[in-house]
Amino acid sequence: MGTKTARLDVLRGTLDVMILKSLSWGQQHGYAVSRWIHDQSDADVLVEEGALYPALYRLEARGLIVSTWGASENNRRARFYRLTGAGRRALRAEADGWRRYATAVGKILSASDGPRRSRS
Amino acid sequence: MTPNDREIQQELEAHLERSIQDLIGAGWPPEAARAEAARRFGDLRARRLECAAERDRAARIAPWRAWLADFGRGCRAVRRRPGAAAQMTAMLMLGIALIGAIVAIVHGALLRPLPFPAPAQLVAVWGVNDAQQETRGHFSPADLSDLQTITRRAGLSWLGYMSWPVSLTDIDEPERLEGALVTPEFFDTLGVPPARGRGFSGLNAVDLSTTVVISARLAARLGDAAAPGRSLRMNGGLMTVAGVMSPSFAFPAADTDVWVPLVLTGENATNRASRWLKVVARLAPAQSFDDGQARLTQAMAQLATAYPSTNASWTARAVPLHTEMFGPSRLPVLALAASVLALVLVTGANLTSVAIGRLLQRLPELHLLLALGATRASIVRQLALESGLVAAAAAAFGIPIGLGVVLMVRNLAPQALTQLAGYDATTTVTVVGMVAAAVGAAWLGAVPILARPWWTASADSTRSGRATSAGVRRQRWLVIVQTAFVGALLSLATAFESVYAQLARTDLGIATHGILTLRLQAPRSRAATNEAQATYFDAIFERVAHAPGVSAVAAISDLPLRGNTVSLPIAIEGRPKPPGQAEPLAALRIVTANYLEVVRTPLRRGRFFHSLDLPTSPNVAIINDAAAQRFWPGRDAIGARFRIGGDQDWRTVVGVVDDVHHDGPTQVEGPAVYVPHRQKAETWLTWMWLVVRSDNPRATLSAIRPAIASVDRNQPVSQVADLDDLAAASVAVPRLTALAALVTALATLTLAAAGAGAVLRQSMSLRRREFAVRLALGAPPRTLTGLPVLDAVGLVGSGGAAGVMIAFAGLRLLGSRLPDLPAFRSETALVPGAVLLIVAIVIAIGPARRLARLQTADILRQ
Q1: Partner residue opposite A54 with nearest CB, options B14, B51, B61
Q2: Closest-CA residue to B663 (of B583, B772, B562, B542)
Q3: What ipTM was predicted for this assembly?
Q4: Cα four-point dihedral sign B178, B184, B187, B189
Q5: Rounded to whole angstroms, how far apart are CA atoms B37 and B28?
Q6: Any CB–CB contact under 8 A between A76 and chain B?
Q7: What is d(CA B507, CA B497) in angstroms, rounded to the nearest whole number?
Q8: Using the beta-carbon criterion (under 8 Å), do B55 and A53 form an inter-chain contact?
Q9: Which chain B residues are within 8 Å of A48, Cβ to Cβ?
Q10: A115 prior amide bond cis, ω within 30
Q11: Is the minimum CB–CB distance between A38 and chain B shorter than 8 Å?
Q12: How far does the CA of residue A30 sit from the closest CA of chain B (Å)?
C-alpha cells in the first residue's frame, strides 16, 4: 500500500512539471497539453488524459498558471492556460531537481562496481 | 449543477470531442474512436468532481492570495523608497510612544481610583480659621474624638494620623522606619484590614500602647522575627506585631512601614489647643459630598460653642481624598497631556503631509498601474497594506519607547508624581500604543482614499502637474497648522519656564548650599525630661562638631523644606484674648543657639541666641518678620513678651529675623517663633534635625555616623538629605511642568521643521521652470536665493503668529480656572518668534543653495 502511494506521488509531481513545461512555449488548452506530452515522450509516458484536468486546476489554485476562455484553432470555445511568473520560477526549480535526480539515478544504474562487503 | 460545474463539464467534453475527431482522422471507425477516447480519458464524472474540489479550494484561498500578493508588493514598495517609509515609521513611532506614555501617566497619576473600597466616600478634612488665614489646619485628638461621637448617628466614620518615625533597634544595625501614628479606627475607616493578623479595633488602651501593624515590605525583610504575635523593639519599647498589611497598601505614604495606634489618654484627651492630626472621614454610603460637608460644619459649630477658648472661629472643609492625593500632580500632568496632544496633532498633520508626498512621488507609477487595468480599490488596498507595515514597525519600537518614557518621567520627578510610584504602566502603554498604531495605519490608509479625485485623474502630464501642485498646496496648509501648534507650545513652554526660573531664583531665607541634614530621635530612656533630652542631643552635637570635614553643627525641630510644622497657640503679654475667640497660632521651632547663623538667616533687629541662653536664665525667643508684623504691628517687637505652647513664664523677644520659605518657594511663611532648645517647654517634642555645614556634605556622612554611634549605638542615621536637594525637590512640580512643555515643544518643533523643509523643497522644485525663465530673462542668480527664505519665513511666520495667539487666548481663558497657570508676558511671544525665525532660515538654506547652483540650460534640458 505504501509503495503504491509513493509511486502515485511521484507521478503527480511529474505530471505537474510536464504541464508547466508544455505551457512554457505559450498558452495551450488541455487537449493540446496532453498531446504535447504524448508526442514529446514518444508515447512512453502514459498519462490518463482525465488526470490532466485536476492537475491543471490545482496548478491554477497555486497561482502557477492562469486560465481564460477563448476560441480554439478550429474556432471552438476552449479554456486556455498560461504560465504566471511564479509558475515560471516553479518550473525552473522543479526541472533542476528532476535533472539532478535523473543524473543521480542514471549514475547508479550505470555503476560498474558493486557495494563493498563489510565484516560483521 | 452550478455554472462552474457546467464549465468544467464543457471543458472535459470538449477534450473528449477533440480526441474522438483526431482518432477518426487517424482512420478509426466512429464507434471504436468514441470507446478509445473514453478509455484514454478515464472516469469522466470522477475527474469532474476532482476539478470542482480543486476549484472550490482555490476560491477559498483566493482573497488571502490577493492580500499576500499585495503584501509582497507593499514590502517591495517600502524597499524601493526606504526613506519615506522610515520617515513615516519614525513619526508614527514617536506618536505611539508619547501617546502611550502620556495616557499611562495621566491614568497612573490622576485618574486611578484610590485602592480602598468605596473610595468616593473618603474625604480629607482640613481645619479652617479665617482669622488666622488657616485653610489646611490639623485637628487635636480630643476634637477628632468628639467629631466621631457627634457624627456617628449620621453614619460618618473617621481616622486621624500623623507622621511618626520609629527607631527599630535590637537588630544588627539600628534603623529609622517611616511610621504613622494613627487612630485605632484607621484601617476600619479605610476599609482595608491587615492581610495577616489583625488591626487595632477591639483592643483596650493597655494593649494598644504595645501594639503595631507593619508593612508587607518590612515583614518580608525581617522574616519570622516580625510575624504576627512576635515582638520588635521600637522607640525603645517592646511592641507586638498585631498584623501585616498587604504589599499594595500605601497610606498615608508609599514608604510607611509601621502603623502605631494613638491612645487617647492624659493630655491628649483634653488638650484641644494642640492640633497635629491629619484627618480623613468616610461619608455614609450614598451620602452626598455636600451633605457630608454640612454635617461637618454643624459638628464644628457644636465644638466651637462647647469649647470657645480653643475652638471658636474654627470650622472645617472637606476635600475628596482623591483630589487631595492626586491634586499636586494635576498641573504638570495636564500640561504634559496638553503638550502631547498638540504633539500628536502635529504628528498627524506631518504624517498626512508625508503620505501626500508619497502619493505625489508615486503618481507616475500609480497612473501606469491604472492604465494597465489595476482597479482603484486594489491600489488603495496596496497603499493601506504599506501603511499597515509602517504602523506595525512603529508599534514594535514605539511601545517599548513609551514604557521607557514613563520610567524616565517617574525617575525625573518622583516628588512631583508620587502617585506614579507603584504604578505598572505596561498594560496601558501596550493597549494605547496598539490603538494608536491602528488609528495611524487607518489614517495613512485613508489619505489616498480621501485624496482620490486628484491622484486618479488621467495620466496626461498637464493634469498630473496640476495634481502635484494641488497636493503641495494641501501640504503647505498642513505646515501652517503644524507651525501654529509649535508656536503655541513654545509660548507655553516659555511661560512655564519663566515661572520655574523665578521660583528657582527665590531667596529661601536660608543658605542651602553645603548643608547635610538628618533626623535624630531621643530614645524613650533619654526623653523623660527636657533636661535629659538636651543633654542627650548636646552630646551628639558635640561629637559631630569634631568629626573631620564638619565646619559647623546646628539643629532644629522642624527642618525647612521637609513639610513639617508644629503650630501652637501664642499669648501676647498685655493683650488679653478677646472673649469667644481662639488664641492665634505661631509655628514653634526649637533650635540650637547657633542654628540661625549656620543656615545664614538674615537678622533684621536685635541679636541671635548665645551660649548664655540657658534653662536658668530668662526665657528668650527670636521671631520672624511675619510674627513681628502680626503680633506687634507698628512697634518694635524687641523686648516684647509672650507665651507659646507649654511655657509657664513669659518669653522675651531678643531678635527678629527674615521670613524663610519653610515649605518651599511657592509658600509664604506665617508667624514663626524660634526657641533655644535648652529652654524648651515641650517634653513631647523629642526629635531634632541635625544640620551640618561642610565643604562636601555627602562625604562628611561617613564621619558623622561613627560620631553619633559613639554617643548612642542605637541611634539610627536616617532621612539623610542635602538641603540643596530638598530645595530642588520643593520646585519639582514647576520644574517638571516646564520640562514637559519644553521637551514636547522641541519634539514638535523638530517634526514640524522636517515637514516644512520637505514641503519647501517640493514647492521650489515645482517652480523650477519659472526660475529658469527668470534666469533666461537676465535675473541675477542671487535674486533667486532669497525666495526660499521669504517663502519659509512666510509659511512658518503665519503659523507661528497664529500659535502665539492661540496660547494667549488659551492662557487667558483657562487662567481664571487654573490659578497655577502662568501669565502671558512679552517673552511668551518673543521667544517663539525668535526660535521660529531661526528655524525658517535653517530650513531655507538647502533650497537656497540649490537655487544658487541652478542653470537655465539644465532645466530646459529636463
Answers
A1: B51
A2: B562
A3: 0.85
A4: negative
A5: 11
A6: yes
A7: 18
A8: no
A9: 40-42
A10: no
A11: no
A12: 7
**Nearest residue to B356 via CA among B436, B443, B462:** B443
Give the Cα separation of B825 and B822 in Å (integer).
9
Residue B23, C-beta contacts closer than 8 angstroms, at least 6 positions apart? B32, B33, B36, B37
Contacts 24+ apart (CB under 8 A), B262-271: B262/B141, B262/B160, B262/B181, B262/B182, B262/B183, B262/B184, B263/B205, B263/B208, B263/B209, B264/B141, B264/B142, B264/B145, B264/B205, B265/B205, B268/B141, B268/B142, B269/B141, B269/B142, B269/B145, B270/B142, B271/B140, B271/B142
Asked whether the beta carbons of residue A54 and residue B50 sit closer than 8 angstroms, the reply is: yes
Task: Decide: helix, strand or coil at residue A25.
Answer: coil
8 Å CB contact of A49 and B43: no
Q: Indicate which of A12, A48, A57, A66 best probes the interface with B, i.e. most B CBs within 10 Å of its own CB.
A: A57
| Residue B25 identity | G
Q: Report the relative pairing of strands B122-129 and B315-320 from DSSP bridges.
A: antiparallel
Q: CB A49 to CB B19 under 8 A?
A: yes
Strand partners, B676: B591
Q: Which residues does B550 contact at the CB level (< 8 Å), separation at least 6?
A: B544, B692, B693, B694, B700, B703, B704
- Please enumerate in sequence order all residues whose Cβ is within 8 A of that of B438, keeping only pairs 6 or more positions apart, or say none: B391
Taking the Cβ of residue A111 and every Cβ of chain B, the question of whether any pair is shorter than 8 Å is answered with: no
**Separation of alpha carbons A22 and A37, rounded Å:** 7
Which residues make beta-bridge pairs with B745? Answer: none
Q: Distance, in angstroms, between B334 CA and closest chain A CA?
A: 56
C-alpha distance across the termini of chain A, in Å: 33
CA dist B260 and B199 (Å) reads 11
Does A51 contact B at CB distance below 8 Å? yes
Closest-CA distance, B449 to chain A, in angstroms, reads: 29
Q: Which residue has the cell 515590605?
A: B217
Task: Give residues 2 to 21 of B whose Cβ lies within 8 Å of A.
Answer: 7-8, 10-12, 14-15, 18-19
Amino acid at B801: A
Measure A80 CA to nearest chain B CA, in Å. 10
Strands B258-261, B179-182: pairing is parallel
User: Does residue B128 carry a pLDDT above 80?
Assistant: yes
pTM above 0.80, yes or no: no
Residue B184 and residue B210 in contact, taking contact as beta carbons nearer than 8 Å: no
- Mean pLDDT across chain A, nearest whole number? 81
A58–B65 CB contact, under 8 Å: no
**Residue B788 near residue B760 (C-beta atoms within 8 A):** yes
Alpha helices in B362-460 (DSSP H): 363-371, 376-412, 426-450, 452-455
Residue pLDDT, tens place only, B212-226? 999 998 998 888 888
Rounded distance between C-alpha atoms, residue B828 and residue B495, angstroms = 6
Which residues, including other chains, have CB under 8 Å from residue B616's CB and lie 6 or more apart? none
Nearest to B54 among A29, A35, A54 (CB): A54
DSSP H or E run through B843: helix B826-852
Residue type, B407: L
Task: Find the range with the poorest average confidence among B331-335, B714-718, B746-750, B814-818.
Answer: B814-818
Task: List pLDDT tens digits, range B15-41.
Answer: 999 999 999 999 999 999 999 999 989
The burial of B607, by beta-carbon neighbours within 10 Å (0-12 exposed, 13-18 middle, 19 or more buried), is given as exposed
Nearest-Cα distance to chain A for B387, in Å, is: 26
Nearest to B42 among A31, A50, A60 (CB): A50
> Shortest CA distance to B405 belongs to which of B95, B92, B111, B110?
B95
- Secondary structure of residue B749 in the 3-state scheme: helix
Asked if the C-beta of B51 comes within 8 angstroms of chain A's C-beta atoms, the answer is yes
- Please determine, for residue A120, whether its predicted confidence score (pLDDT) is greater than 60: no
